[in-house]
Amino acid sequence: MSRAASSPPPPRRGQSYMAQVTRQVLTQWGARLGLAWIGLLGILAVFAPFLASSHPLLLSQDGQMDSPLLRYLSPADVTLLALFFTALILALARASFRAWLGGVGSMLILAGVLSTALVQPPALAIYEQYRQQEAAGDYDWVLYAPIPYSPKDYQRDRGETGLQPPLASPQANHWFGTGENGADVLARMIHASRIALGIGFVATSIALLLGILIGGLMGYLSGVVDIIGMRLVEIFEAVPTLFLLLTFVAFFERSLYLLMVIIGLTSWSGYARYVRAEFLRLRQQDFVQAALACGLPLRSILFRHMLPNGIGPILVAASFGVASAILAEAVLSFLGLGLVDDPSWGQMLNQAVKSSTFNWWMAAFPGGAIFFTVFAYNLIGEALRDAIDPYLKKS
Amino acid sequence: MSTYVIRRLLLMIPTLLGITLVVFAVMAASPGGISAQSLIEGQNLEPQAKKALEDYYNQLYGLDSPPAIQYLRWLNNASPAGFTFDEENHISGFSLWKGSDLGTSFRYGRPVLELIEERVPITLLLNILSLPFIYTLAIAVGVRAATERGKVFDVGSSALLLGLWSVPVMLTGVLLIGFFASNQYWHWFPTAGLNTREALDMPFLPHWGSLGEAALLLVAGVAGAGAGVGLAKAPRLLRVGLLAGLGMGLGFWMGAGLPHPHLGMSLSLGVLLALIIGGLGYTDYAGLRLGLLGLLGAGLGLTVAAQGGDGEFVRGFLLDRLWHLVLPVLCLTYSGFAFLSKLTRTAVLENLMADYARTARAKGLAENTVLWKHVFRNSLLPLITVSATLLPGLLAGSVIVESIFSIEGMGKLAVEAVQTRDRELVLSITLISGLLTLAGYLIADLCYAIADPRVSYD
């Protein structure tokens, strides 16, 4: 609705619909800022162990070089790094969207399997040993990460003896202060960006997949399938999502992957409604009837012919959905029903008003991170809607 | 119409069954599940007492039977029509009006219905208080944005609203508590609960030691409001200058009120408030300016007058309750407001471009008449629909607010119920919130048909 929307760039000949939409989204400042923030978070998430870790990046002991950080890399770290570089290379080579998707997908499976089989970090990490050995002069030289604390490096501090008071306000050692166990807030926040991004993407993908499948079948087949499907949609809509989530999470073990699945399972109904309405409209149109007359299989009609024509509004909804999935995880963690020991922004925000004192840094930094991420996805969603919805474009 | 309502009511039954089935299945399928053993786990009891307690729970809730039987048993108890049992748990007959029994809470040992009856009014109070604010603000901003499409107010307000919409309620709650309720900053509001202990013994209305003092407060409030309104009507340059000065003064006063006054803090507060209040004076939106400045003036007058009193003042139950509700209601208001004003804007925009609006204008009606008498009335339709669906949504939204402010409402009860694996409570809360939501949808559809003669469900 800004000036950019009222004078859209002229469509190029031979450019696909998706490319046009992307171009138009990118003309809006809000969307650019949002994408920049998500990109920054993505880089933080991929390189988290290199940015914030108590393991030295490199050290030299008795003339021998060693890198404890590499030894302690987990399978998830390795998989993420492999994925990032594959995506980067494919993007630089200007591969088509399909090749890009295939490349990243196969890399995910390959790297995931290989790294779980081959990468086995030592089970126990004693972060203190590096500081003690460094203080004792055992190392010739040590190179630490920019933030020399791991997210679970509790109660210890550099240059001082004894236990550091938990919940200390920001100082020179800890730029963003420390949490209730004495862990560095900035280090935890960097590692938590993984959870925030991962939950957003994976949960929304699961919800989208379920929604498209159920909604598509409902809209296309209608009749009895539609009636049963609508009851299913109503069931999931009639219970407030937050409450359903609470129930799920409280009764199952706390694991990141389960959390993703559960948030996905509880938020598909909106997409199903959209897809159903869209398919009910499309079903009557000539090209679908033509495809039907040609004797194409159901799979082909549904996903090759109908879906691409109805995907626009669903993508807009998905972009807002990512924001609400991130918010859902934050709320769960805030209520103390999230992951137990893993860093999460919501769980850190929970510590802001612990024990009747107000720790402003625990509210400002993690809370600010949640706000900016949710805001970024909402901005992107808004820009996407302006680009896709021809009715709103006019106004 | 009546056939439509009956059909909708009948369709609610399978949905409600489905809701409880889903929730029951989740609880039954969870690792550990719910059994008499898991209920008394962690209690330090003699083996014999443990066994007795287990038997007691098994007898009471049938926790040793297979999940399917347990579900059917619960369903039979909860539904108003069903089988009745005699003393030895044998079916004694079938009754259509045996009344529904939602069971007894594991944790509290009290009937679930009683617990819910206790908590619902509190959550309703919170939500009903916030609804008028949401609607007034949303309509004011939404209509204004639509009439000024593409201008500064529209672009600015929609960016601001999107931002406001993205601020998580828990962050707002934590910040409000931290700055305005904790004793590290301004200890203006209470941190938790709905009333102080003493307030229970107080009379309902506030009262003062002397009549003169009450009169002083009244005069000061009215004078303050008058001064605010007068200032809002003054020429722009004058009012911006005066208001900025006032903001600066307020900032310094707030800075001095801190437990550890700090010059930099006071200075930045002063500049911030000068910008905000000065900007309020700068705006062209006369209604907004008059209203907010009047309120500000009244508040200032009251504060100044209260400082001069001799302390013979009893707060009273009502004022105490309101004082506790300010921050939670603020939290609940802002998120709904952002959503609703966007909706208002779209609706008004759509109707402003409609043919009938053009006709009204061509007829020579003033723009304001067209807007409020014709366009606005038609734009109310989507707002009516949303209001019916808003209430159950607000019930869920108060989960966070109630947890932050430790208010013993439905939301907090729900969190406690799932945390303590209180099966009967969880099932009942889902059933009731599901019922509310479905009823909300139905009422919304009916309102739509009543308000818009083009819609019919026959």
TrEMBL record, chain A:
<dbReference type="GO" id="GO:0055085">
    <property type="term" value="P:transmembrane transport"/>
</dbReference>
<keyword id="KW-0472">Membrane</keyword>
<keyword id="KW-1133">Transmembrane helix</keyword>
<dbReference type="InterPro" id="IPR050366">
    <property type="entry name" value="BP-dependent_transpt_permease"/>
</dbReference>
<feature type="domain" description="ABC transmembrane type-1">
    <location>
        <begin position="193"/>
        <end position="381"/>
    </location>
</feature>
<keyword id="KW-1003">Cell membrane</keyword>
<feature type="transmembrane region" description="Helical">
    <location>
        <begin position="72"/>
        <end position="92"/>
    </location>
</feature>
<feature type="transmembrane region" description="Helical">
    <location>
        <begin position="99"/>
        <end position="119"/>
    </location>
</feature>
<protein>
    <submittedName>
        <fullName>ABC transporter permease</fullName>
    </submittedName>
</protein>
<feature type="transmembrane region" description="Helical">
    <location>
        <begin position="33"/>
        <end position="52"/>
    </location>
</feature>
<feature type="transmembrane region" description="Helical">
    <location>
        <begin position="195"/>
        <end position="220"/>
    </location>
</feature>
<feature type="transmembrane region" description="Helical">
    <location>
        <begin position="257"/>
        <end position="275"/>
    </location>
</feature>
<keyword id="KW-0813">Transport</keyword>
<dbReference type="GO" id="GO:0005886">
    <property type="term" value="C:plasma membrane"/>
</dbReference>
<feature type="transmembrane region" description="Helical">
    <location>
        <begin position="314"/>
        <end position="340"/>
    </location>
</feature>
<feature type="transmembrane region" description="Helical">
    <location>
        <begin position="360"/>
        <end position="380"/>
    </location>
</feature>
<dbReference type="InterPro" id="IPR000515">
    <property type="entry name" value="MetI-like"/>
</dbReference>
<comment type="similarity">
    <text>Belongs to the binding-protein-dependent transport system permease family.</text>
</comment>
<keyword id="KW-0812">Transmembrane</keyword>
<dbReference type="InterPro" id="IPR035906">
    <property type="entry name" value="MetI-like_sf"/>
</dbReference>
<dbReference type="Pfam" id="PF00528">
    <property type="entry name" value="BPD_transp_1"/>
</dbReference>
<feature type="transmembrane region" description="Helical">
    <location>
        <begin position="232"/>
        <end position="251"/>
    </location>
</feature>
TrEMBL record, chain B:
<comment type="similarity">
    <text>Belongs to the binding-protein-dependent transport system permease family.</text>
</comment>
<keyword id="KW-1133">Transmembrane helix</keyword>
<keyword id="KW-0472">Membrane</keyword>
<dbReference type="InterPro" id="IPR035906">
    <property type="entry name" value="MetI-like_sf"/>
</dbReference>
<feature type="transmembrane region" description="Helical">
    <location>
        <begin position="425"/>
        <end position="451"/>
    </location>
</feature>
<dbReference type="GO" id="GO:0055085">
    <property type="term" value="P:transmembrane transport"/>
</dbReference>
<dbReference type="GO" id="GO:0005886">
    <property type="term" value="C:plasma membrane"/>
</dbReference>
<feature type="transmembrane region" description="Helical">
    <location>
        <begin position="159"/>
        <end position="181"/>
    </location>
</feature>
<dbReference type="Pfam" id="PF00528">
    <property type="entry name" value="BPD_transp_1"/>
</dbReference>
<feature type="transmembrane region" description="Helical">
    <location>
        <begin position="124"/>
        <end position="147"/>
    </location>
</feature>
<feature type="transmembrane region" description="Helical">
    <location>
        <begin position="214"/>
        <end position="232"/>
    </location>
</feature>
<protein>
    <submittedName>
        <fullName>ABC transporter permease</fullName>
    </submittedName>
</protein>
<feature type="transmembrane region" description="Helical">
    <location>
        <begin position="321"/>
        <end position="340"/>
    </location>
</feature>
<keyword id="KW-0813">Transport</keyword>
<dbReference type="Pfam" id="PF19300">
    <property type="entry name" value="BPD_transp_1_N"/>
</dbReference>
<feature type="transmembrane region" description="Helical">
    <location>
        <begin position="380"/>
        <end position="405"/>
    </location>
</feature>
<dbReference type="InterPro" id="IPR045621">
    <property type="entry name" value="BPD_transp_1_N"/>
</dbReference>
<feature type="transmembrane region" description="Helical">
    <location>
        <begin position="237"/>
        <end position="256"/>
    </location>
</feature>
<feature type="domain" description="ABC transmembrane type-1">
    <location>
        <begin position="120"/>
        <end position="444"/>
    </location>
</feature>
<feature type="transmembrane region" description="Helical">
    <location>
        <begin position="262"/>
        <end position="283"/>
    </location>
</feature>
<keyword id="KW-0812">Transmembrane</keyword>
<keyword id="KW-1003">Cell membrane</keyword>
